[in-house]
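Example: 8-oxo-dGTP diphosphatase.
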Amino acid sequence: MTAINKLKVLHVAVGVIRNDSDEILIARRNSQQHQGGKWEFPGGKVEQGENVSTALARELKEELGIEVKHDQPLCQIRHCYPDRHVFLEVREVTRFSGKPIGLEGQPLQWLAASEMDPGIFPAANQAIVRAARLPRNIAIINNSHDAEQDWPSVIAGFSALPPQCWLRLRAITGSTPSQYLQKTKDFLISSTRNRPLLIDLDVSLQSIAELEALREKVLGLGLPGWGYYANKQVLAAMSEQRPPLLENITIGASCHNQQEYQLAVDKGMDFVIASPVASSTSHPENPGMGWRAFAAIAKTGMMPCFAMGGLSQQDYHLARQSAAYGIAGISLYR
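Written out as structure tokens, the predicted fold is:
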């Protein structure tokens, strides 16, 4: 057994604390600590016999002087540093009382998720940053074969897009990877686009290099960036956790049951869209898994889980009560 395998795993409860402006609280680590000088999401060690929620509430009371009123699972992260292993159980804190104060002398800062620079955080926190940046809504649009597809009109057709909603550009049945890639490029360089995008990965993963080469140009135009989305066939085709080129890029995946959710976890995805929750117009023959089965998946807390299938915008709060991070859909926003 190597020395690194003998290292004890440090179990840590971490809080992504949001205020009424949807800003997130971060704290700076003391220069004498492990990863000193880096910014982090507040939290601390889970003591023997404690559950994660209790440990987080205790740590936030001790470090910040706040009382947690509501929290729910966000994600779990295992990371190996040269001198230690950490297991982070991350919970989203959306209600608390009191004003956070650095009771241990640590500087605090409220930031919008979009303003967070991953480079200021420890390596183990990178996945938390990606999770914190996720929207609450994902609208799915079909990528047509039509060479003259008018993207502004397509987007305008989604009349009920909430603020901060992301778009997933869905590859339709029958399109080849090259056709989808070209249409995606057309969409990416459209100056009318003002929302982050999720691009479907093809099984060969050949589109990644071309799309990543385009990223600098698109960002230079002042347009939002993008992430990727994988169906179960793409997940199965991945021979490694995530392509090295996409180490710090958001990647989501579809899942329809606990086994597919676990596959997404094993392949290092950042979130899943679990479906169908209920019968939908596109698949009326499928009654859906129901909220109880959905909650059983989402409450494992290994990664953010969106609900999709047969939902309306009125189902958002029910989805959140069932441990969903947010909701996604095609007709949901029309």
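The chain has a mean pLDDT of 85.
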